[in-house]
Design goal:
Layout: E1 5-9, E2 14-16, E3 19-21, E4 25-29, E5 34-36, E6 40-42, E7 47-49, E8 55-57, E9 61-63, E10 66-68, E11 75-78, E12 82-83, E13 88-90, E14 101-104, E15 109-112, E16 124-131, E17 134-137, E18 141-149, E19 167-171
Parallel strand pairs: 1-4, 2-5, 3-6, 4-7, 5-8, 6-9, 7-10, 8-11, 9-12, 10-13, 11-14, 12-15, 14-16, 15-17, 16-18, 18-19
Length: 179
């Protein structure tokens, strides 16, 4: 848990059990990637700047503060639920057609984003890859590419609606159900 001030990580991968960034604290990745073996939380007033590095959260990931993935092509892999409904996720740099990729793994995951997905960065992903079953999701927008990949077994995907200008890659090899 990071309670206050700023922490910059240098060389070497950081692996931790859980990660909580509290109000007034910030974490900047300046060396290598970050792996969280449990849950990750950025609380209101806290910030995580990926600085072009990759983040893996093997549990649930909750963003109530700021997650900045605007530099480079960071990959954020989440093994549980994604909830940025009360926070800010900057998925790409304004004016640059280059951004991050969020990869959702695990079974029965949920995806929650801010309700105003028309605001830059609110409820949006640059690239979103969904592996396997999704229990529920709320409205979100994908700027560049949405990939839905079915793993072994039968999976259902909640209702999916898209604007006509989004590209979709579906590697299903089986049944694709939209409720």
């Amino acid at each position: 848990t990071i309670f206050g001030g700023s922490l910059s990580l240098g060389n070497g991968n950081l692996i931790t059990g859980t990660l909580t960034i509290e109000t007034g604290a910030s974490l900047v990745l300046s060396g290598n990637d970050l792996t969280v073996n449990g849950n990750g939380t950025i609380n209101t007033g806290g910030a995580l700047n990926l600085n072009g590095k990759n983040l893996t959260v093997n549990g649930n990931f909750t963003v109530k503060g700021i997650l900045d993935a605007s530099i480079g092509t960071s990959t954020i892999t989440v093994g549980g639920n994604w909830d940025s409904s009360l926070g800010t996720f900057t998925y790409k740099q304004s004016g640059v057609d280059l951004g991050s990729t969020v990869v959702m793994t695990g079974i029965g995951k949920t995806i929650k984003t801010p309700s105003d997905s028309n605001t830059f960065g609110a409820g949006r992903f640059y690239n979103l890859e969904i592996n396997g079953e999704v229990a529920s999701w709320e409205k979100f927008r994908v700027y560049k590419k949405l990939s839905i990949i079915k793993k072994a077994g039968y999976a259902t995907i909640p209702k999916l609606t898209m604007d006509s200008y989004y590209r979709v890659a579906v590697n299903w090899g089986g049944d694709l159900l939209f409720d």
